[in-house]
């Protein structure tokens, strides 16, 4: 019978610290043994502003989890969803002139590209490196073409970076808790892997998340995380606009959006029902007005996030697929339809509204990445005695 093992994970997001303990029976079987969700303290605007406060609350709740489960943890996996992450994509080349590609050729390209990133991003630390593209004689290939012959080889790597001071602060907090950071995973990466695993025919897509007061977009290309960006606005601006123009309270606006069917074809004569006015005097407010306000605001949200986002100019070709997640997957059906219609008008024909990634699915995905890695991840960042390049070859070639 396989021995049970307990593994500690901590998710740090915009509003919460979530402590998970995963119980594994073997590398293919696991479940959430313990979960604790508490408000974040000491973090604001994607920065650690009060080291001592954050340290105290993390130390206290790790101790509680150890007492609860009667165990002692020595290492931890971090899941980050609220730090400023940047991305760099670089390509290295090798002229072959008909010769064979050797492992040393790829080693040289990797060393050169990583050295370039380390030199030019001195204030940042690498979290992930992805093999985003292999090309031999202008033909894209799936795996490193060691042993093949050709004239020209190119190798593209995509780097995910975190500010070095943030990394050092996190490292220091957990070292003071007598824990080694085994691995750091970006939550966008976890979501992208989960979507990719569930949609094996799709390896390039955008993901858009719109919550009440914040939003996020990330871009997956060839099963690699290549970009993410957060925004300080969400569905609240739609609610506030409708409330301001109609004089409804925000709570009533949400009820209306949950109840009525918002469509471009809604009649100019249809009015908001009397039941929504409660104790107020009935006023003739057209459903079409609600639709027009919501559509205008959603257009602005999507222009800022994707269609007119200057940070996405590099990705000048929109992928055919896009996944979006709203504040509530079961509410605001009319709002979801407006999103889909706008995507369709912009040429994205495959736009799917999906629910939030459940804790179970997230932990299953994280566990799989920790134990087996990801097919496109060249260097999962861990603090070990092996060099980064040595770990790359251990993962890819062994």
Verbal overview:
- The structure is a single chain.
- This protein has 10 helices and 17 strands.
- The chain is globular and about 80 Å long.
- It is of the alpha+beta class and 398 residues long.
- The chain is 35% helix and 30% strand.
- The chain has a 5-stranded mixed sheet, sandwiched between helices. Strands 7, 8, 9, 10 and 17 form a 5-stranded antiparallel sheet that branches. A 5-stranded mixed sheet has the order 14-13-12-15-16, with helices on both faces.
Compile the SSE list and pairings:
Elements: E1 5-12, E2 16-26, E3 29-39, E4 43-44, E5 47-48, H1 51-69, E6 75-80, E7 85-95, H2 103-120, E8 124-136, E9 139-141, E10 152-163, H3 164-176, E11 180-186, H4 187-198, E12 205-210, E13 215-221, E14 224-231, H5 236-246, H6 250-259, H7 287-307, E15 321-325, H8 333-345, E16 350-353, H9 359-372, E17 377-380, H10 388-397
Low-pLDDT residue intervals, each spanning 5 or more residues: 380-385
Strand-residue proportion: 25-35%
Total DSSP helices? 10
The structure class reads: alpha+beta
Helix content: 25-40%
Largest sheet: 5 strands, mixed
């Amino acid at each position: 019978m396989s021995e049970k093992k307990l593994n500690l994970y901590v998710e740090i997001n915009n509003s919460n610290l979530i402590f998970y303990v995963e119980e594994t029976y073997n590398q293919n079987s696991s479940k959430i043994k313990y979960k604790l969700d508490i408000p974040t303290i000491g973090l604001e605007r994607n920065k650690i502003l009060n080291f001592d406060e954050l340290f105290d609350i993390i130390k206290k709740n790790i101790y509680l989890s150890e007492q609860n489960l009667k165990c002692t943890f020595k290492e931890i996996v971090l899941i980050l969803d609220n730090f400023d992450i940047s991305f760099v994509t670089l390509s290295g080349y090798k002229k072959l002139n008909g010769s064979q590609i050797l492992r040393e050729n790829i080693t040289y390209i990797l060393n050169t590209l990583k050295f370039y990133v380390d030199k030019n991003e001195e204030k940042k630390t690498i979290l992930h490196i992805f093999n985003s593209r292999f090309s031999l004689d202008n033909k894209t290939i799936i795996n490193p073409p060691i042993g093949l012959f050709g004239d020209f080889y190119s190798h593209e790597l995509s780097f995910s970076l975190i500010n070095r001071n943030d990394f050092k602060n996190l490292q220091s907090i957990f070292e003071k808790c007598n824990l080694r950071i085994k691995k750091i995973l970006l939550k966008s990466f976890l979501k992208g892997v989960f979507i990719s695993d569930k949609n094996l025919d799709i390896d390039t897509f955008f993901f858009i998340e719109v919550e009440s007061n914040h939003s996020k977009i990330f871009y997956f290309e060839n099963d690699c995380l290549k970009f993410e960006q957060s925004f300080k606005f969400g569905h609240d601006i739609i609610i506030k606009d409708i409330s301001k123009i109609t004089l409804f309270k925000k709570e009533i606006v949400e009820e209306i959006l949950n109840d009525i069917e918002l469509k471009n074809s809604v009649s100019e004569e249809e009015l908001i029902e009397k039941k929504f006015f409660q104790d107020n005097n009935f006023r003739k407010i057209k459903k079409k007005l609600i639709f027009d306000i919501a559509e205008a605001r959603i257009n602005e949200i999507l222009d800022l996030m994707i269609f007119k986002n200057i940070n996405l100019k590099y990705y000048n070709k929109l992928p055919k697929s896009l996944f979006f997640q709203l504040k509530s997957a079961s509410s605001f059906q009319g709002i979801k339809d407006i999103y889909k219609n706008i995507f369709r008008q912009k040429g994205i024909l495959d736009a799917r509204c999906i629910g939030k990634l459940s804790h179970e699915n997230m932990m299953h995905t994280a566990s799989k990445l920790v134990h087996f890695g990801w097919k496109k991840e060249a260097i999962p960042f861990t603090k070990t005695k092996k060099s980064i390049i040595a770990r790359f070859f251990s993962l890819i070639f062994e």
